[in-house]
Amino acid sequence: DAKTTQPNSMESNEEEPVHLPCNHSTISGTDYIHWYRQLPSQGPEYVIHGLTSNVNNRMASLAIAEDRKSSTLILHRATLRDAAVYYCITSTNAGGTSYGKLTFGQGTILTVHP
Amino acid sequence: DTEVTQTPKHLVMGMTNKKSLKCEQHMGHRAMYWYKQKAKKPPELMFVYSYEKLSINESVPSRFSPECPNSSLLNLHLHALQPEDSALYLCASSLQETYEQYFGPGTRLTVT
Fold it and tell me: Which residues, at least 6 apart from B91, have a Cβ–Cβ distance to it below 8 Å?
């Protein structure tokens, strides 16, 4: 799995958009990009994933660079409930066989101010 | 039911004890996972079960013994643990491997 690099921490104000960056310069062509978050005292929670195209769901958007060496998780309007550690993860899908192995990096601690 | 449940929530055990952690899901998922998370660190994968067969063992010491008796249930048997094994143990499940994983709240384990 490609190594990911994220800022240790970021801050945002409530109701403002948040852009959380992730570098994965060694990503291979078949690696997926996943984002999970972990709220305090809870298990991680799936946010979104993608391969090449930008993706949207009810929680967030994922913007993937054209060369796939970086991606950005976008929270359109941050709320206090979005304060969490956000993990960017790449996973291997090799030779037609998919693997359920997620290797979590250090993640970004997001603080949301009222 | 979109929940992964884990019992117990907290467990304190001595180094000579034998205990088990339990994880259950009723979402029809066929992949289940054990992770270990030390304080202020990211989760680390321990084991993956796919269709009740062990798919991945991340070189975990034999004092941790996983078991998947059926598609809804995942156990982690603990024996002769060390104090450094104290951590939050997280269980997760997914429809199949590579699908999004749903995590339980974890079992906080303290080894004395």
Answer: B4, B6, B21, B23, B32, B33, B34, B35, B74, B76, B103, B104, B106
Between chains, do B98 and A44 touch, taking CB under 8 Å as contact? no
Query: B94: which chain A residues are within 8 Å (Cβ-Cβ)?
Result: 100
Chains A, B: CB contacts under 8 A, how many?
Answer: 57
Shortest CA gap A51–chain B (Å): 12
Average pLDDT for B38-47: 95
Strand A93-94 to A97-98 pairing: antiparallel
pLDDT at A98 over 70: no
pLDDT confidence of A111, banded at 50, 70, 90?
very high
Q: What one-letter code names the amino acid at A14?
A: E
Question: How far apart are the CA of B17 and the nearest CA of chain A, in angstroms?
Answer: 26
Q: Do B45 and A32 touch (CB under 8 A)?
A: no
Mean pLDDT of A24-50: 92
Q: Which residues of B touch A41 (CB under 8 A)?
A: 105
Q: Are A74 and A56 in contact (CB under 8 A)?
A: no
Residue type, B43: P
The residue-averaged pLDDT of A4-8 equals 96
